[in-house]
Specification:
Layout (H helix, E strand, L loop, with lengths): L13 H10 L6 H13 L4 H11 L9 H13 L3 E4 L7 E4 L5 E5 L5 E4 L5 H11 L10 E3 L2 H11 L1
The structure holds zinc ion (ZN) (2 copies).
Length: 159
Amino acid sequence: MAHQHAARRGDTDPAPLAERLRSRGLRVTHQRERVLAAVAALEHATPEAIVVRLRGEAAAGSTPPDASTVYRTLELLESLGLVWHTHLGTGAPVYHAAEHPHLHVVCQSCGAIASADPALLDAAAERLAADLGFTVDVGHVALSGTCAACRERAASEQT
Ligand SMILES: [Zn+2]
Ligand SMILES: [Zn+2]
């Protein structure tokens, strides 16, 4: 999958998590830290992929969180503003660390995903705000279309 946003593999700073949990009267648990680290490391991780990763990471004798715990933890982290999710298609949403806002474009033919600067949609967002009073969440769904490779292939097949 073509993807350009900067990865922060495993170097999640735990301070914001701890602060935000404490300010809500919540404890910093190992599981919450692990889920946040997995989101940061995986990029475009579905909850299932996070479960699989945590299962692989679990030390011998320790119990990795089950899927429903991971879902609940993701919801909690999202409510704290530490992760966000986007829908790339009809499958499960994918999760991102909060530090990297971006837009997604997804190819309808081959499924390739690319990231783009959310500022690209500033003009559209301003018009929606002015005309409809609507605040658009540009990162929440992907724009679908045809990637450069698929367009080239289609063009060469026609000749
Ligand atoms: Zn992304
Ligand atoms: Zn394609």
